């Protein structure tokens, strides 16, 4: 009996010790308490970014839910998900994807654990992030407060100043009238730039080079911002001429850990819209790289940034860098960062949202290394002959460039696909990677040369015959409509310049 009692006593003591160990482990490892697996994800978006997230979810064993507008009934992102539901019935095409109550309703009715916003649409709307939180659905991104802070360009600028990050001289808050812009121009001189206070993507952005242009550009910027974001508020900055546009990819978790995944050079733009993105930035001074990445991480830590985001900078000809904004979402060009770091950013977003810490995921700063170069080109359904206006119609021929070192992210890039006039003109993202920049550029040039994209409506047999004898990327006749002439010629010209630059250096 004594032996049995001793055994029970020993077992009891062991149980107490294990309980104490578990208690200490729980307190010392807060993510053990907060970790909650995601079983079903909705993507509140469309097109290639929705498919990109669906693929990541499938790889992690997570069920996927698509939403679609009435105009998107036949779109590929609907087919790629495990479940798909109509939203915004009776609403205009874009408004359907902005219908927060309907999206939340679909999520709750179908037991969705988390919503990924993609990019565009609701991705930087703090009220959407808050609406998710209010009904117990996780938002795959920063907290609603951080989304709000970063979405307000003026507040984000103030936070950057507080974090000791250099900013371009500009107004402290949104301007309320033209006279404030006139006063600013007298103080700092021209050129200046108007920017939308509550949005980005090049809308509501106008450069003013002399006083006579001030009033007209103020009115245009205000109108564009009002139409695009529902708020015409603007702020004014000194315009940095011929800068490099460098952005730093950051990633944070729920426990204060923040890392960077180096930078991307997005300087090649048209109408303030990125066309070609390169990672890492070419011939960036190592000391400047250190300053850019350190400032990005410091700013993210100050605001308690969680999940993926991008801190954007301008770099002038003297090597001085200036904070522009924080995009509190996944970027279109996240692909090039993935290629050079071998980090799947969408996987990381999902795991961080579940409550995993970055160290637990093996994502420590010392482990992040640059491996080669990557270039992304955005192939769009635009017509260069009409000022790059979007074209629409049916893809009658589609053959893509592929092969080693080429990644394609797309949604509607297949023969027979109908390109909608209601949404963005992006057809496919082509990403080339190689051991160095010349290798990546050569792969991209070759891949683009292999593309054959055609959607033809014949209005003149003679014009059609003439078109057949000319390279596709050079054709655009009034008699023959090639809706998918895109900007391949422009992009290939840029790549030729990149290759020449590499050879000279």
From TrEMBL:
GO terms for cellular component: cytoplasm. SMART domains: Biotin_carb_C. Keywords: ATP-binding, Biotin, Ligase, Membrane, Nucleotide-binding, Transmembrane, Transmembrane helix. InterPro entries: ATP-grasp, ATP_grasp_subdomain_1, BC-like_N, Biotin_carboxylation_dom, Biotin_COase_C, CPAse_ATP-bd, PCB-like, PreATP-grasp_dom_sf. The keyword Hydrolase does not apply. Residues 37-505 form the Biotin carboxylation domain. This is Pyruvate carboxylase b. It comes from Esox lucius.
